[in-house]
């Protein structure tokens, strides 16, 4: 039975040219994982209610001076805190429900720890985004209803992602989309008024903020959580399944580490740097455990060099779990980490260290150095098995002396039995772990195997020859490492790309309302040039041309021509549109940045069209008060001469801005169309 809904049927994927986002799992599907998430959501609501009651009681306790009221409030607080503790224990029970996330095949493997998804409340983007589009971008917000609906649908789908690569892609798509939304609609100087609420994955305590960073951080956490669930449900009876599990846990560690380094001030405790540091260690420890399973999957031969390798591999797993348990035992993580998690980590640390001692004992007791064996290689391997040999033992002498090997081997067996007994004892003290039958069976079998091995070689005088088994050096052929998230592999299209290029049309730039410019070309002369691209800017504007008199300004961005959107068009494409309207009245919409300094290009830039001499643009600043009103001022030529090369040479003097008061020469011959220069390579663009 599948719990995944089919993709939406808005358009076929091939027709859209890109992969439209898929829906998440059906929240009503009666699968183990969906039931678990539903239970988690209910517990989160109950915890939120209890937290509010506790906060209200604490406020009343601080405000009142009546002793009778204080006593009653203290009594109520004790009940509320008791209820909170019970609810958190129930949530912890869900967090350790590892059997729900394990592979469905019957496997004789120790369960792994997945992370549960963070729950959230619904968010309505429609009203506030529409208001912002109208206020900030001066556009009709009703034209963006579909885009806003797509954003809300995508967020809703991310609340129930499928536990596979499609779920990862869905969450990653929304995370990248949030980057576009943040730049489009969330100015750094003020809050938008959208409240995001997410529940702590470990404690169930809700956190609410108007900051979009909480949303982004929580989505990242859920990406890591889905990776852990992919890892735990992989088939660990095949090499391919084990490789997928290692990859999933390493990617989970990479995502959580990226979250720790990027979002350093998240208010939710499960995303605090201390907790994320522990979670990263836990993912890498589980990846290292699966690497050990991958090496041992073909079977462990009772051969000297194989047993040396397996002893060091098992010691490596035990070491990383011991370090993880030490990190879990530190404040402030210790207070909020699930007790069952910390106990399982301790159990695994003891279990794998016991396995390492068992392998070491087997290679010492069962394998004697024979004349045909590689003496130097075995001596080297045995010396590398320990940091230092026990007192009175040397590698070569131990290999040659049967009694020394047996004595040292039995010391390893005693250590293995002690560690196995400790792992069984720790597991029995935790109610949650006692209910995991496969874990209890594996620990019991490992303990009996070590005990049987020791009983076969036990002697009455063993207590007279007791030596401490040395620690086994940890070594692995594959170190578990974090894999950084590769968001660039997921291609995402900005829902609101109609607003224009994100580099300009963003929330941190303030724009004027669009201005309508009605003008005509005069003898094929526009009166200005264009530069930039997507959108293009008016450049080198003749202050006496028709466009300037209609209200155009140098530095304005052209956003539409004849009601055709031009925000994504290049210079050549805009020129082609203007060429098509050469003999008609042109209706053009332009916008300007509020900060004129950022929208205007340097006015001292030089301008040349195939001429040696250049002209400063400072003369644009004309002091009209100095104009001799008695002189008739004829309209001046545009800065851009659209004539042929011959005409350019004749009218070279007109390329400079004419001095104020100088009459404009009369041009009898009609100039060629300005669009003849579209294909030329010049500094105009």
β-strand number:
8
Helix count? 22
Strand content: under 5%
Unreliable runs: 1-19, 27-31, 596-685
| Structural class category | mainly alpha
Strand arrangement, major sheet: 3-8-6-7
For the residues shown, what is the average pLDDT?
Answer: 78
Rg, alpha carbons:
37 Å
Choose one word for the global shape: elongated
Main β-sheet: number of strands, strand sense, barrel status? 4 strands, antiparallel
The H/E string reads HHHHHHHEEHHHHHHHHHHHEEEHEEHEHH
Subcellular location: Cytoplasm
Keywords: Coiled coil, Cytoplasm, Phosphoprotein
GO cellular component, one term: cytoplasm
Family: Belongs to the RHPN family.
Tell me what you see in this structure.
- The two termini are 60 Å apart.
- 38% of the residues are buried.
- α11 (304-328) runs antiparallel to α13 (339-366).
- The protein is 49% helix and 5% strand.
- The chain is built from 22 helices and eight strands.
- The strands form three sheets. It has a four-stranded antiparallel beta sheet with strand order 3-8-6-7.
- A hairpin with a 2-residue loop joins β6 and β7.
- The radius of gyration is 37 Å and the shape is elongated.
- It is mainly alpha-helical and 685 residues long.
- Among the domains are: 32-101, Methane Monooxygenase Hydroxylase, Chain G, domain 1 (Up-down Bundle); 300-478, no CATH class; 510-592, PDZ domain (Pdz3 Domain, Roll).
């Amino acid at each position: 039975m599948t719990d995944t809904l089919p993709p939406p049927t808005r358009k076929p994927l091939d027709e859209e040219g890109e992969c439209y986002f898929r829906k998440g799992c059906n929240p009503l599907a009666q699968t183990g994982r969906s039931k678990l998430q539903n239970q988690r959501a209910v517990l989160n609501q109950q915890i939120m209610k209890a937290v509010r009651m506790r906060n209200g009681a604490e406020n009343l306790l601080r405000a009142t001076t009546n002793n009778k009221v204080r006593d009653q409030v203290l009594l109520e607080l004790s009940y509320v805190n008791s209820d909170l503790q019970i609810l958190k224990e129930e949530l912890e029970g869900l967090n350790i429900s590892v059997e729900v996330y394990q592979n469905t095949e019957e496997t004789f493997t120790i369960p792994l720890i997945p992370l549960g998804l963070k729950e959230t409340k619904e968010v309505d983007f429609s009203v506030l985004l529409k208001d912002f589009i109208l206020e900030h971008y001066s556009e009709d917000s009703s034209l963006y209803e579909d885009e806003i609906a797509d954003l809300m649908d995508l967020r809703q789908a991310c609340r129930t992602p499928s536990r596979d690569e499609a779920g990862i892609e869905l969450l990653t798509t929304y995370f990248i989309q949030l980057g576009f939304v943040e730049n489009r609609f969330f100015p750094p100087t003020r809050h938008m008024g959208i409240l995001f609420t997410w529940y702590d994955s470990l404690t169930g305590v809700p956190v609410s903020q108007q900051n979009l960073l909480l949303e982004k951080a929580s989505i990242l956490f859920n990406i890591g959580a889905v990776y852990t669930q992919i890892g735990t449900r992989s088939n660990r009876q095949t090499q391919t399944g084990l490789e997928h599990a290692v990859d999933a846990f390493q990617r989970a560690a990479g995502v959580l580490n990226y979250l720790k380094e990027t979002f350093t001030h998240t208010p939710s405790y499960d995303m605090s740097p201390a907790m994320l540091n522990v979670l990263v260690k836990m993912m890498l420890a589980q990846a290292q455990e699966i690497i050990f399973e991958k090496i041992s999957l073909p079977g462990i031969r009772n051969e000297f060099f194989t047993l040396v390798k397996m002893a060091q591999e098992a010691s490596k797993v035990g070491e990383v779990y011991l370090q993880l348990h030490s990190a879990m035992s530190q404040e402030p993580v210790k207070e909020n980490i699930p007790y069952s998690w910390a106990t399982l980590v301790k159990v695994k640390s003891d279990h794998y260290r016991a396995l390492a001692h068992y392998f070491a004992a087997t290679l010492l007791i069962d394998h004697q150095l024979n004349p045909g064996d590689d003496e130097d290689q075995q001596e080297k391997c045995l010396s590398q098995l320990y940091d230092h040999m026990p007192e009175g033992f040397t590698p070569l002498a131990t290999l040659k002396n049967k009694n020394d090997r047996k004595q040292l081997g039995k010391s390893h067996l005693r250590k293995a039995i002690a560690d196995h007994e400790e792992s069984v004892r720790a597991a029995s003290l935790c109610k949650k772990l006692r209910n995991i039958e496969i874990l209890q069976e594996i620990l019991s079998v490992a303990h009996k195997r070590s005990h049987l091995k020791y009983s076969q070689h036990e002697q009455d005088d063993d207590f007279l020859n007791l030596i401490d088994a040395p620690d086994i050096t940890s070594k692995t052929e594959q170190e578990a490492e974090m894999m950084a998230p590769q968001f660039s592999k997921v291609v995402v299209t900005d829902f609101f790309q109609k607003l224009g290029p994100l580099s300009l049309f963003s929330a941190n730039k303030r724009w004027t309302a669009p201005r309508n410019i009605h003008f005509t070309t005069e003898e094929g002369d526009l009166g200005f040039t264009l530069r930039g691209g997507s959108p293009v800017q008016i450049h080198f504007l003749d202050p006496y041309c028709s466009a300037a008199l209609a209200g155009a300004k140098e530095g304005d961005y052209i956003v539409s021509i004849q009601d055709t959107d031009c925000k994504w068009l290049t210079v050549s494409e805009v020129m082609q549109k203007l060429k098509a309207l050469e003999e008609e009245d042109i209706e053009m919409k332009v916008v300007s940045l509020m900060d004129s300094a950022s929208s205007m290009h340097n006015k001292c830039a030089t301008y040349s069209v195939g001429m040696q001499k250049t002209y400063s643009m400072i003369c644009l600043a004309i002091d009209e008060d100095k104009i001799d009103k008695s002189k008739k001022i004829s309209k001046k030529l545009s800065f851009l001469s659209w004539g042929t090369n011959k005409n350019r040479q004749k009218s070279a003097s007109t390329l400079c801005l004419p001095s104020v008061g100088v009459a404009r020469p009369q041009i009898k011959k009609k100039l060629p169309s300005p669009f003849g220069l579209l294909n030329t390579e010049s500094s105009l663009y």
